[in-house]
Amino acid sequence: MVMKTYSIGDMAAHNTEQDCWIIVQGKVYDMTPFLDEHPGGKKIVLKVAGQDATKQFDNFHNQAILDKYTPKLCIGKIGESSDVTLTAQEDHEPAEDEEDTSIGFGDMVPFGDPAWYQDYESPYYNEHHREVRNVMRKFVDQEIMPFCFKWDEKKEVPKSVIKRCGDLGILANICGHPFPKKYFKGKIMDWLIASTRMH
Ligand code: HEM
Question: pTM (2 decimals)?
Answer without folding.
Answer: 0.56
